[in-house]
Amino acid sequence: MKVKKAVIPAAGFGTRFLPATKVVPKELLPIVDKPTIQYIMEEVASAGIEEVILITGREKGSIEDHFDTSTELENHLRKKGRNDLLKIVQEISEMVTLVSVRQKEPLGLGHAILCAKKIVGQEPFAVLLGDDLIDAKVPCIRQMMEVYQEMEGGLLAIQKVPKPETPLYGIIKGKKVGDRVYSVEEMVEKPEPGKAPSNLAIIGRYILPPQIFDILENVQPDRRGEIQLTDGLRELRREVPIYGYEFLGDRYDAGDKLGYLQANLSFGLRHPELGPKLKKYLKNITL
Ligand code: UTP
Fold first, then answer.
1. Which listed residue, of 37, 101, 146, 267, carries a Cα 20 to 30 Å from 279's Cα?
2. How far apart are the first and last CA of the chain?
3. Cα separation of 63 and 54, whole Å?
4. 203 lines ligand 1 (CB under 6 A)
5. Is the CB of 102 under 6 A from ligand 1?
6. Distance from the CA of 249 to the center of ligand 1, in angstroms?
7. Is any ligand 1 atom within 6 A of the Cβ of residue 112?
C-alpha cells in the first residue's frame, strides 16, 4: 500500500538544548539558514507524501507559522523588489498540506504518534522525528518507501553506530535478508555496549502499519510515565514482520548540541556562498 501521510513528532521539551529551547522550539533552530524541520519537510515533500501531521505542544505554534503564508512579509519583499527571497518564502508554505495536532503533555514518542491516530486512519504511514536530520542523495524516507513497496509490516531506518554509543539508541538484533535490509528479531532500548545484540541503531525514520495505534493505546507507561515507541514496536512484531533498512546518508541528531554543531559545519562547508569562506576560517583556527 502506498504511503501518503507522514507524522512529524515535534512536541518534546528539548531539554538537552536549554536555555535555547525555553521559547524557541529546537525544531526551528537553524542549520545554516534553514530550520531543522524545514529540511525534514523537504524530505517528505520530495518523497511525494501528500499530507503531514505535525505533533506539536505548548510554545510550538511558531513551527506552524513557519509553514504558513506570511502576507505581511511577502508584501514587504514584493515592495522591496526582493523576488529571490519572496520565492524562498512562498515555497515553504506551498511544500505540503499540514495538519497539526496538539500533544497536551509530552508523554513520550509513542504517545506523540498515537495523537495522529484519527487523522492517519487505516493506512501505513511514515514517521520522521522533528530533530533528526538525514543528509542523503536520495532522501532517506524515499529510499525507505521504495523498499517498503515490496513488503508489509513495519520498516525502521537503522545505522551502524560505534559500540560505546549503544546506550544512546534502540538497538536491533536482526538477520540480513536483502540488500541493506534486516529482519528484526529483537529490539533493546539503550543497552550497555556489553549487552547490545548488535551495533545497528534505530534512527528517527519509520514506516508503520496502522495496527501500531491500537497497540500504543495499550502500552504501559515506563518509569518516567512515558509511552515508548520501542515498547509498541516490540508488541507489533508479534503481529507483523518488522524490518530494518540501513539507509544511505549521514545522520545528525540536531536535538543534541554536538550533533547540531556538526550538522551546521557539514552543511555550511557545502554551502555555495559560505563554504569556501568557512573552510578558510576553519583552516586558520586549527593552525
Ligand atoms: P527527543 O527525546 O529527542 O525529544 O524525541 P525531547 O524530549 O524534546 O528531547 P530532550 O531529551 O528533552 O532534549 C524525539 C522527537 O520526538 C518528539 C520530540 O519533539 C523530538 O522531535 N517528542 C518526544 C514528542 O513529540 N513528544 C514527546 O512526548 C517526546
1. 37
2. 55
3. 9
4. no
5. no
6. 22
7. yes
In this predicted structure, the answer to whether residue 60 has a pLDDT above a threshold of 90 is no
The 10s digit of each residue's pLDDT in 20-52 is 999 999 999 999 999 999 999 999 999 999 899
Domain borders along the chain are 5-282
Sorted by sequence, the CB contacts under 8 Å of residue 143 that are 6+ apart come out as 136, 245, 247, 248, 249
Q: Choose the CATH number for 5-282 among 3.30.420.10, 3.10.20.30, 3.90.550.10, 3.40.50.1820.
A: 3.90.550.10
Give residue-wise pLDDT tens across range 79-122: 999 999 999 999 998 888 899 999 999 999 999 999 999 999 99
pTM for this structure? 0.94
Cα 187 off chain centre by: 19
Does residue 32 come out as left (phi exceeding 0), alpha (psi in the -120 to 50 range) or beta?
Answer: left
